[in-house]
Amino acid sequence: MQTIALLPGDGIGPEIIDEAVKVLRAIEAKYDLKFQFKESLVGGASVDIYGTPLTEDTLALCKDCDAILFGAVGGPKWDGLPKELRPEQAILGLRKSLGLYANLRSVILFNALSAASPIKKEIIGEELDIMIVRELTGGLYFGKPKGIERTHDKTRAFDTMEYTDEEIKRVARIAFEAAQRRQKRLTSVDKANVLETSRLWRTIVTDMAADYPDVKLCHMYVDNCSMQLVLNPGQFDVILTENTFGDILSDEASVLTGSIGMLPSASVGDGKPYLYEPIHGSAPDIAGSGKANPIACILSAAMMLEYSFGAKDAASAIRNAVEKALNEGYRTFDIQVGAKKVISTSEMGDIIVKNL
Predict the structure, then answer these.
(1) pLDDT tens by residue, 309-341
(2) For residue 191, which phi and psi values (nearest 5 degrees)?
(3) Catalytic positions
(4) I need a labelling partner for 353 at 20 to 30 A (CA). Which of 47, 123, 162, 267 fits?
(5) CA 90, 37, 322 angle in degrees (round to 5)?
(6) CB 112 within 8 A of CB 338
(7) DSSP state letter for 211
(8) Are 75 and 10 in contact (CB under 8 A)?
(9) 202 vs 188: CA distance, rounded Å
(10) pLDDT tens-digit profile of 10-49?
(11) How far apart are CA 85 and CA 42, in angstroms?
């Protein structure tokens, strides 16, 4: 029995989580797997009831589970709250408390959606399959000191970018191992011509390459990488980078797939549970309308099966079922290119279950 914490959150979060659970129930019926789901509130939904985006009870529930499936948090309803009460603090709190220091974002363009990508097919090539490994708990977002100072004649804002050798080594190790399982190519992205943190990053990653002789390592400046993702995305296999650069590059890469509603992710660390979530936001403007694309959440569940439970066959079955649905021309409203039929959130879940 595998115990899964369900954290639907806000906006379209509950809708897409429902479809992922529907698919996991179908997996139970087909494979030697059994799931127990434990649901709890996070984000704005938790703020409304408990006055905080992440309660101690929810955190304890997550720590007691084998994996976490997260929907989405946030919305204009809570925009005026102090920083510590904003819904987004839920995901930041989970990452910190659970030691989830690496985010794995799978960027795959399904062939049926090639026309939906803003990049021409002759540039993308026959296949696009990139894994971005982003450091998640260091860098500018967490470095100290940070703040805003005001004097009589000016206002000064400052953030600190910092990394230790151990922080770099642990996320680089995950990236090298991911490359070993894939096409054995790793691109480490930094800004070593300007930043001291990047110079340390490049030195450590270069030294670690000796432990992975089967992986071809290259280094690339972040500005060049952002350009190459548009000019020649097929050159990449695994991309490793620090927190801020990874945040930007992974969102850029998501557009290549035709819709941000297609991309899953996993946040991992040295111990379990790991956390799985679609990379899109809560989309409050379409919540409850049946327009949400559940595929990213369903593919996040597939990543969970593979990374947390070692059920690679079941994970592949989900991906194949998604691909079949797209090949048959079924689309949600965000991916209407090549559509034979535009269907609702729940209908897409039903089609994927049928294909299983």
Answers:
(1) 999 999 999 999 999 999 999 999 988 888 899
(2) -135, 55
(3) 141, 191, 223, 247, 251
(4) 267
(5) 90
(6) yes
(7) G
(8) yes
(9) 8
(10) 999 999 999 999 999 999 999 989 999 999 999 999 999 9
(11) 11
